[in-house]
From TrEMBL:
This is V-type proton ATPase subunit a. The lineage of its organism: Eukaryota, Viridiplantae, Streptophyta, Embryophyta, Tracheophyta. It comes from the Eukaryota. The keyword Secreted does not apply. GO terms for molecular function: ATPase binding; proton-transporting ATPase activity, rotational mechanism.
Length: 818
């Protein structure tokens, strides 16, 4: 026990020791003090105004101002993005501006930019109208010109035939009345010209036809140029149309339909001379507007460039100011209204630095009163804080995804750093596939600084965050692949020749007895001669299944041992005597004994049936083992272990609730004794706290809880051991899939003397390796390793009901906080 107490503390094994502190800050130095604490980033404030809404807090107006400035900055950023400009990532040094000055400056620039946008939109709308007018003049002029040429020919024919007969003078048709010179009147043929979106032209024509009952002539032609929509800034295809009709009523209907469909109508003179004159005027106006628009865009881009030059700094400044005022809203005024009172948690090692930062804030703000910083007793449990680096952070996140460790509880991440990638590799063992994963991990690590400063997608961000997990998984996969002797499912004689040789020419079809051992065993890993033999699958199945049980029992024992260190650390001797000891006895009496038999069988080469041994250990414990006996005294040992396992179950169940009841009765009677903390009593309270309070003891609840815990452990010892067989199953599946793709795809294609078939086979093999073996199988093995750690390993000791230490820190602010 003394040896354990004298062991040096591990940084990651226990969370940092925390202390509850109170700050009394004069109002004049409060802003600067909070800013300095935000830069330091190791003090988590407690919200003293949790019962108030955000609008009832002291600094709500300052928060609103910062939110309004954030909105303006987002507007600037959006405008810069739409203009296709890039904001400067490293602005030139400029003197720091106060928040009030920045607020005025942002308001002026926003007003200026909105005015420029409005003017630009009006000019663009006018330019679009003139451009549409020009295209309507060109296309409609063509329609009218062809109509007049056709009309002249018809007029000559009518003069020769119809109008020579006076009987037909009063029966001229509508078109004839229109096209005869000087014969146009109020009931003559008219036309409306305009332009409409190409996507609406069919519905538009159909509606016109129905509204006029077919009494119209509709001509259309696609516009030569696309027109920019001033609102969406998208280029839109349009179509020019000319509608010939008769009557005032038809004109009213057509104009209403044009308005409903968003078609723009433009007057086109019938006279060709006037058409040319109007076209020239429109072209002149278009030229002037183009130069005006270009000048306006240049001026707007200059204004946006000057904003973009300082945008990153301004956004960071406003984000920090808003965070400072949000934190100040968590503080309370004292009775004099001259000081702000705050409470929070900080690591003990950071107390000196925090006090120095507060002293610097007092000096820089020229305050006459210093900031008071003192330690207090806390009612609640402290937050959990582990100091991690870029390597250990990903493993800590894997553990935290299950649950944040209780304060000062043993941290599974210390062991997960090794056990997680190793168990993954047991299922993924192939040193060819491991090299592929290693190359991917090395690429991510080599580009760490570049990728870390970029905004990545969700999948890429997850992959980049786990780059060191991927590195270890690949290294262990190479190691396990060398043990399995598999390189894309192909065995190699890396560590020397095989220990076996063929007895005759048919030994590849025989069982393992067809191979003759003629030298020492293969020095490392599986002998390559097992590959292709008829006993390959039974041999590898037996090997991997037994290895899975050994690894599982070892990891579960580690979890129970960690529960001992937790109980010893918190001084819970009751948990050691009545939880740790019976759990160790029960697990190792059954599955520890099975692991021992596996090792002895491997070492002695015995043919004993371990299934028979374990089954009849329960059914007939006194029966003679016969040929299944592995060592002298095995039958007696089995009876002792079976009795120990049976005794361990009531040992876990009964003593602890009754001892707790006895201790509570002694306390109720006022007897003096030392308080014995347990994992079932006062879970949410800090040990040695001056403000502890105890609820009424409920014996039935404690007993039921202990009974559930005991049953869960007894059944879990069986199910968890069986669950580790997934190591064998996944390893077998990965190996067999690799073999299928190699033999049935690559070798089959290579058997043809055709370069195209070989290339197709190689492509299919590469695709299957990349997407099935390297992606799907990697994900599958990752999830199964995650399950083994969360359920089979961590449930032996890990409570995971704590909460993270979330200090006020400028470094943790992101763009989403705007």
């Amino acid at each position: 026990m003394e040896f354990i107490d004298n062991l040096p503390a591990m940084d990651l094994m226990r969370s940092e020791k925390m202390t509850f502190v109170q700050l009394i800050i004069p109002v004049e130095s409060s802003h600067r003090a909070i800013s300095y604490l935000g830069e330091f980033g190791l003090l988590q404030f407690r919200d003293l105004n949790a019962d108030k809404s955000p609008f009832q807090r002291t600094f709500v107006n300052q928060v609103k101002r910062c939110a309004e400035m954030s909105r303006k900055l987002r507007f600037f950023k959006d405008q810069i993005h739409k203009a296709g400009l890039l904001s400067s990532g490293r602005p030139a040094s400029q003197p720091d501006v106060e928040l009030e000055e920045l607020e005025i400056q942002l308001a002026e620039r926003e007003h200026e930019l909105i005015e420029m946008n409005a003017n630009s939109e009006k000019l663009r709308q006018t330019y679009n109208e003139l451009l549409e007018f020009k295209m309507v003049l060109q296309k409609a002029g063509g329609f009218l010109g062809s109509s007049k040429r056709h009309a002249v020919g018809e007029e000559r024919e009518l003069d020769e035939n119809v109008y020579s007969n006076d009987d037909y003078a009063d029966t001229a048709y509508l078109l004839e009345q229109e096209i005869r010179p000087g014969q146009s009147n109020q009931s003559g043929l008219r036309f409306v010209s305009g332009i409409i979106c190409k996507s609406k032209i069919l519905r538009f024509e159909r509606m016109l036809f129905r509204a006029t009952r077919g009494n119209l002539l509709f001509n259309q032609a696609p516009a030569d140029e696309k027109i920019m929509d001033p609102v969406s800034t998208e280029m839109v295809e349009k179509t020019v149309f000319v509608v010939f009709f008769s009557g005032e009523q038809a004109k009213t209907k057509i104009l209403k339909i044009c308005e409903a469909f968003g078609a723009n109508c433009y007057p086109v003179p019938e006279d060709i001379t006037k058409q040319r004159q109007t076209t020239q005027e429109v072209m002149s106006h278009l030229s002037d507007l183009e130069s005006t628009l270009d000048a306006g865009i240049r001026h707007r881009n200059q204004a946006l460039s000057s904003i973009g030059f300082h945008l990153a700094k301004w956004m960071s400044m406003v984000r920090r100011e808003k965070a400072v005022y949000d934190t100040l809203n968590m503080l309370n005024f004292d009775v004099t209204k001259k000081c702000l009172v705050g409470e929070g948690w900080c690591p003990i090692f950071a107390k000196t630095q925090i006090q120095e930062a507060l002293q610097r804030a007092t000096f820089d703000s020229n305050s006459q009163v210093g900031i008071i910083f003192h330690v207090m007793d806390a009612m609640g449990s402290p937050p959990t804080y582990f100091r991690t680096n870029c390597f250990t952070n990903a493993f800590q996140e894997i553990v935290d995804a299950y649950g944040v460790a209780r304060y000062q509880e043993a941290n599974p991440a210390v062991y997960t750093v090794i056990t997680f990638p190793f168990l993954f590799a047991v299922m993924f063992g192939d040193w060819g596939h491991g090299i592929c994963l290693l190359l991917g991990a090395l690429v991510l690590i080599a580009r760490e600084s570049k990728l870390g400063s970029q905004k990545l997608g969700s999948f890429m961000e997850m992959l980049f965050g786990g780059r060191y997990v991927l590195l270890l998984m690949s290294l262990f996969s190479i190691y396990c692949g060398l043990i399995y002797n598999e390189f894309f499912s192909v065995p190699y004689h890396i560590f020397g020749g095989s220990a076996y040789k063929c007895r005759d020419g048919t030994c590849s079809d025989a069982r393992s007895v067809g191979l003759v051992k003629f030298r020492d065993p293969y020095p490392f890993g599986v002998d390559p001669s097992w590959r292709g033999s008829r006993t390959e699958l039974p041999f590898l199945n037996s090997l991997k299944m037994k290895m899975s049980i050994l690894l599982g029992v070892a990891q579960m024992n580690l979890g129970i041992i960690l529960s001992y260190f937790d109980a010893h650390f918190f001084g819970n001797s009751l948990d050691i005597r009545h939880q740790f000891v019976p759990q160790m006895i029960f697990l190792n009496s059954l599955f520890g004994y099975l692991s021992l038999l596996i090792v002895i069988k491997w070492c002695t080469g015995s043919q004993a049936d371990l299934y028979h041994v374990m089954i009849y250990m329960f059914l007939s414990p006194f029966e003679d083992l016969g040929e299944n006996q592995l060592f002298w005294g095995q039958s007696v040992l089995q009876v002792i272990l079976l009795l120990s396992a049976i005794v361990a179950v009531p040992w876990m169940l009964f003593p602890k609730p009754f001892i707790l009841k006895k201790l509570h009765s002694e306390r109720f009677q006022g007897r003096s004794y030392g308080i014995l903390g347990t994992s079932e009593m006062d879970l949410d309270e800090e040990p040695n706290s001056a403000r502890q309070h105890h609820e009424e003891f409920n014996f039935s609840e404690i007993f039921v809880h202990q009974m559930i815990h005991s049953i869960e452990f007894v059944l879990g010892a069986v199910s968890n051991t069986a669950s580790y067989l997934r190591l064998w199953a996944l390893s077998l599946a990965h190996s067999e899939l690799s073999t299928v793709f190699y033999e049935k795809v690559l070798l089959l294609a290579w058997g043809y003397d055709n370069i195209i078939i070989r290339l197709v086979g190689l492509a299919v093999f590469a695709f299957a390796t990349a997407f099935i073996l390297l992606m799907m199988e990697t994900l599958s093995a990752f999830l199964h390793a995650l399950r083994l750690h969360w359920v089979e390993f961590q449930n032996k000791f890990y409570h995971g009901d704590g909460y993270k230490f979330r200090p006020f820190s400028f470094a943790s602010l992101t763009d989403d906080d705007d």
